[in-house]
TrEMBL record:
SUPFAM superfamilies: ApaG-like. This is ApaG domain-containing protein. It comes from Rotaria magnacalcarata. It comes from the Eukaryota. Residues 1-62 form the ApaG domain. Pfam families: DUF525. GO terms for cellular component: mitochondrial nucleoid; nucleus. GO terms for biological process: error-free translesion synthesis.
Length: 69
């Protein structure tokens, strides 16, 4: 429940919510996609589709470690 431990409430004053995350990849690139399930004020739910987006690795300073995005 929630997004990164938060439960944002969207409104006219706050029409958007943004957060950052990371993932470890064992390849140099990848992609992610998914959905967020949102609850409206009337208690009904809507699923918001997140289209596929590319992941590109940054180089780590220590050789031999997995890259992170």
């Amino acid at each position: 429940k929630g997004v990164v431990g938060q439960e944002p409430k969207l409104s006219k004053e706050y029409p958007a919510f943004q957060y950052s995350s990371h993932v470890s990849l064992s390849a140099t690139s990848g992609h992610m996609w998914g959905t967020f399930k949102m609850e409206k004020e009337d208690g009904t739910f809507v699923e918001v589709r997140i289209p596929a987006f590319n992941l590109e690795c940054k180089s780590d300073s220590n050789a031999g470690e997995k890259s992170s995005v």
